């Protein structure tokens, strides 16, 4: 019978708590400044958006001057997780934070989750050197990813499942789950204590179970899965296309930045800039959502990230899914609030090839009442995808 090493377990849990506290503090700083940036950008949008292309040049300069392999971003985190890389430079944290703030300030359409995961993974990676045991880097990486996600979104259960399932599709690193969830709760509590607000919208609509309802949900899930697939596929194809046709990163980001500035100048003022939380709020509150909001947000986010601007994909995915859900509500004959919530989690699930994390996002953001529906819709979307992903370093073992 194998002897339980209580000392090792205790040390891992202690490190998990410490990582969560540190990452939660950094997430608070990152998230709070990002919110303030949105308040500065929105009333001055037409004055700021012409400078998106020049600021793109500055972003490339920062990474080429000081970034080294930090320019890989999340791809570097996945490479370390798979063992093909061993080091994550500390400079990744300030670089990705500053360049994401700049992208958002000047009107880029991007998210924040990728930044939070990089913050968490990098922090944990450098904590690992103080642990008195070798070959624990993957464990610490998952702990950090969980803390990073949780500290920003304050969904610790979803963050923990995200960390253990995202590296390899269909594979769950259960040995990391307990320390990951401890770090996630510590990070979530810390960022909340410091003043970062959690987004939550409890659903009030009740749905009567029937075969007809399942058919509606099946149709809805297939449509949302298609949108998530389309986002992941377009992001990859456009990145490849831009890298091939315009290999110089300075030319690439400047030209696409000019295009983004021009397009956004003639669209409704700042509607598709930044995170997309405005579309999420409008979708769930029954405010105006046009039939093309989700499409514009999808295309502009893909162009922003493919060009080399910094930020994540997840909050825009939430925004795309919620606004698409409102449009689909009239087609499938379901309450817009429910379809917006299902769009929020399902497009994310399809674009990231994750199963458990989006279910728990639904539970932690929208409440437990509709959890059987979350499971059904996410499972269908997961079954329909399992190939395309926004994470180029994610492994698909089939």
Automatic annotation (TrEMBL):
Signal peptide: none annotated. It is a multi-pass membrane protein. This is Voltage-gated chloride channel family protein. It is found in: Membrane. Its main location: membrane. It comes from Streptococcus varani. The chain crosses the membrane at residues 12-33, 45-63, 139-164, 176-196, 217-235, 250-267, 294-311, 317-334, 341-361, 367-385. It comes from the Bacteria. The keyword Phosphoprotein does not apply. One of its GO terms (cellular component) is membrane. GO terms for molecular function: chloride transmembrane transporter activity. Keywords: Membrane, Transmembrane, Transmembrane helix.
